[in-house]
Amino acid sequence: MTAQESTSTRPYLIRALYEWCTDNGLTPYVAVRVDDSVQVPREYVKDGEIVLNISFDATSALQLGNEFIEFKARFGGKPREILVPVGRVIAIYARENGQGMAFPPPVDLLSSAEGAPAALSAAGAPAAAPAEEAPAAAEDRIVQLVGVEDGHKDDGGDAPRPPPSQGGTRPSLKRIK
After folding, report:
1. If 111 and its partner were Cys, which of 48, 116, 128, 142 is the partner (CB 3.0–4.6 Å)?
2. pLDDT band at 107 (very low <50, low <70, confident <90, very high)
């Protein structure tokens, strides 16, 4: 079996990092590059990307398959079915510390960078943004997913932050003896 015939490592790495997050009490987030093959609430898509909380508490019927990530979740109180092709996942990381892994951009971004024909809109007309601008925008969003030492905070400000939770902080119990 050659490297070209083998299956992608991406779904295996996603499952491994998901398990690592849950084993350590962290919240796994996936960043997804959205296109027509991705089934997510479009009103939450920003700059062609969406960040999804795939923790046990935020999802039901989560399936991390080799081809798709599928689950049900609530957005603004409304239940939605989410379907994400594994090839559209651009990163998986822990919300609390940013540790995780970024993946190469989806094939459509790479082909536009290599001088492929410009993308067409739904009407069949050329898209408003030239193909040369898409890779530059993707390069602007490269995130280094590394841990930060305790008490040693980097305030570079260029790393995207996950959207703030709308319910505030999670309640916790404090044991008093």
Report:
1. 116
2. confident
**Can you tell me the distance from the alpha carbon of 163 to that of 157, in angstroms, rounded to the nearest whole number?**
15
**CA distance from start to end of the chain:** 61
Contacts of residue 83, Cβ cutoff 8 Å, sequence gap at least 6: 38, 39, 68, 69, 70
Tell me if 91 sits within 8 A of 145, measured CB to CB: yes
Element (H, E) at 139: helix 133-140
Integer Cα distance of 100 and 145 in angstroms: 6
Structure tokens at 135: 């890779």
pLDDT (tens digit, 9 = 90+) per residue, 128-162?
333 333 343 444 444 545 554 444 444 444 555 55
Is residue 79 left, alpha or beta, with left meaning phi > 0 and alpha meaning psi from -120 to 50? beta
Residue 151 corresponds to which tokens in the numbers above? 């008490």
- Structure tokens given for 48: 């062609």
User: If you count them, how many residues does the chain have?
Assistant: 177
- Residue 33's nearest CA partner among 76, 87, 71, 88 is 88
34: closest CA among 108, 124, 140? Answer: 108
Whether pTM exceeds 0.85? no
